[in-house]
């Protein structure tokens, strides 16, 4: 394994912008379904359908945004422009008027998603070229994801500290988000010394998108990432319902989420060290096995098992660190061997990430409604269905991802 050469201060400065990007993502993907279903009274199936449609459109646009970004001279300006609609969209989503319905939700999601996509795709592509060695690429991704997890912890805990009512807490959170976004943008865009124009392409959009998708190592990595990502997206969409109605401790939801993400952040140096010793692919496989064990345990929980669920949150958070750090670092290794298509690759990468979340919300929530689950209900069969969807489905999908990763372990393009 090569030694690190990128200065630590530059690694940290780059990672700071990951905080507000993840800060925005948690309420959008976790709290918005419950906010619009509970506080605004929208039917659960309608919320799931709106989220599915908006996220599919957003996901489809990502590869095109990535290819468009490859035509730019640098990434910095595109990141800055993307942050503007992101801030406006988060304000609209978390501070809706009392009369807000499906149309408001669709429009707010579209604005937030568009800004997030432009900023995040270029941020990731910038980081991939910023790191000159394989170890540095792992450090850069770990920095970005570490700050991202800090942002998630803040987004998970602040609503309960800012107000006792969850809707009021999210409204206050939106007002905190805007200055945090501005400060982080100034630190990252102003303190990281070089831009990334390397890999610029003027090839026709669909030709480049097809070309990068046709790379065997990238395609295999993307498939494993997709299957594992769906496994993570299902519990992310249903966790608040699980904590409320199966565990029966909705007042501790912030604690559970914080434990999960703090454990993920604390594990990042561990996964960097494990990857350096055994390789990124094998380290990622180890993380999958930890996740499988944690969710298999969660499937058997019932009312009052809050302490056990807290331990499970810590274990699954440990696995989260591997999922966040190692797949993008493997992708960065692949890009080090190429001369173009960075944005197109991360466009596909974000497409898969968002498609996973769309499928989780658009399929899991209507499935729960079909099985008779109603938020706040106490029907035993419906609660068991919720537990199976929350924990059982991720176990099956993670097993599939682990088997695929093991089968393709020598064909991922990992650099040592």
TrEMBL record:
Signal peptide positions (record): none
Entry's Gene Ontology BP terms: carbohydrate transport
Cellular-component GO terms for this entry: plasma membrane
A UniProt-annotated Pfam family: MFS_2
GO terms for MF: symporter activity
Family: Belongs to the sodium:galactoside symporter (TC 2.A.2) family.
Protein name, UniProt field: MFS transporter
Native organism: Denitromonas halophila
